Amino acid sequence: MNGFKTYFTNFKKTFKVKNFIMYFIVAGAMILFGGLGAAGALKRSFLVLLEQMGYGIIVALALSLVVGFLGELSLGHAAFMSIGAFLGCYFQNSVFPALSSSSPFVALLLAMLIGGAAAGAFGFIIGLPALRLKGDYLAIVTLAFGEIVKVLFQNIPVFGGALGIQNKYRYNVNSLYIIIFAVLLLTLIIVQNLIRSKHGRAVTAIRDNEIAAKSTGVNVSYYKIAVFVISAVIAGVGGVLFAGTQNTFKPAKFDYNYSINILVMVVLGGMGNINGTIISAAIITFINVRLGTVLTGNLAVLKDIFYALILIALVIYNNAPALKKFRNRYNLKNGAAAVWNFLVRTFTKKKAEPDPAREVEFGADWSRIPTKVEMDELLSTDFIPETDRPDRGEGGEGK
User: Fold this and answer.
1) Is the pLDDT reported for residue 42 higher than 60?
2) Cβ contact 90:159 at 8 Å
3) Which value, in Å, is the radius of gyration of the alpha carbons in the chain?
4) Residue 22's pLDDT band (boundaries 50, 70, 90)?
5) I need a labelling partner for 153 at 20 to 30 A (CA). Which of 35, 88, 106, 161 fits?
6) Is the torsion defined by CA of 156, 259, 123, 127 positive or negative?
7) Whose CA is closest to 70, among 225, 214, 217?
8) Alpha-carbon gap, residue 29 to 362, rounded angstroms
9) Positive or negative, the Cα torsion across 187, 189, 193, 196?
10) pLDDT value at residue 10
């Protein structure tokens, strides 16, 4: 009973002003554009773009759990997405084709369960040894895992080999759009609820100081594996939804460039900021689609250069001392998250909420508590005025 009460309390915390606005935007977009699409008032290309934004945001939220909240760098989430996409499509085509013909959306739901579970299983297998590594080593291992998965799918005949797999059952664009945004809304609620729970605080404690978290009794290995598996499951579900939008897709689609693309969404949105990640994922997806229509053939490689330039610009912006005053003055320290905070302050006439990663059980804001460095400086300061100090001799006693 106490466990349910705690869960319900954490669930209510997700429905605060800032989070409610994002829930309203996602749900409103699902209802509004879904209704307009059903009435034939929207072009098919626009609904397809919204579908791409939807599953792109889902996968970006998955990676944000690992990179933003756990503090580990993963470059293999395109692999988890591909596992969900290929297995989900294969099961719909070959395992239950009759169900796919009569009740395609029931088949899609089963495919999401299968694809998500398979991606989670691989996440557990790769995460168990990989998460013992740190920094660049973990990034290299996950990058290698992504390439291994791509090569395996290219050489397994049932998945079409290098030519890819064909999706035999196409869905109504408008109906699939509604399903994608419904899954997005559910994913958003789950992620927000997770990071605001005691488990979420344990995860961010590991990110901030793993040794200190371990000394307070946090099971570091358990939480690392759990977050990695949850992230892999969400990415796998996003892969199944991606497959539903395609006629044919190849393993080469899910290369390391795709993982970098997802990482750019997370970094641009602000590390550990869910709302910023959603905004940046939508923007990056839109830019990617527009560039895809302009840059064709040999010019397609310029898209990768574009993402590389974005990462370089973000690193310079976040670390350049010359820009520190500008960032602090306009509160532009968290990428696209700063845009979201500005909108919240504008429309609610309140200060933006503190980062949930810095929020404790009873609502205290850690950002108002001096850091250890500030406390050390404070304690080392001599507050006794020079005129009030007793004169001391060589022996240390006053005259």
Assistant:
1) yes
2) yes
3) 24
4) confident
5) 106
6) positive
7) 225
8) 34
9) positive
10) 56
For residue 40, count other CB atoms closer than 10 A to its CB.
9
CA angle 22, 27, 32 (to 5 degrees): 125
Domains, the chain, in order of start with CATH, read 13-383 (1.10.3470)
Residues 113 and 229: beta-carbon distance below 8 Å: no
Mean pLDDT on 108-134: 90
**Predicted pLDDT at 4:** 46
Mean pLDDT score of the chain: 78
How does DSSP classify residue 273? Answer: -
Dihedral of CA 135/137/138/142: which sign? positive
Total-model pTM:
0.77
> Are 69 and 271 contacting, i.e. CB atoms less than 8 angstroms apart?
no
**Distance between the two ends of the chain, CA-based, in angstroms?**
69
Q: What angle do CA 225, 51, 266 make, to 5 degrees?
A: 40
Give the Cα separation of 290 and 308 in Å (integer).
17
C-alpha dihedral, 314 to 227 to 73 to 334, nearest 10°: 10
Helices (DSSP H) in 245-301: which residue ranges? 256-269, 274-294
Read off the pLDDT of residues 145-199 as tens digits, 9 standing for 90 and up.
999 999 999 998 888 888 888 888 777 888 888 999 999 999 999 999 898 888 9
Report how far residue 281's alpha carbon sits from residue 278's, in angstroms, rounded to the nearest whole number.
Answer: 5
CA distance 58 to 180: 9
CA quadruple 178, 110, 114, 14: dihedral sign: positive
The region that residue 382 occupies, defined by phi over 0 for left and psi between -120 and 50 for alpha, beta otherwise, is: beta
Q: What are phi and psi of 72, to 5 degrees?
A: -110, 140
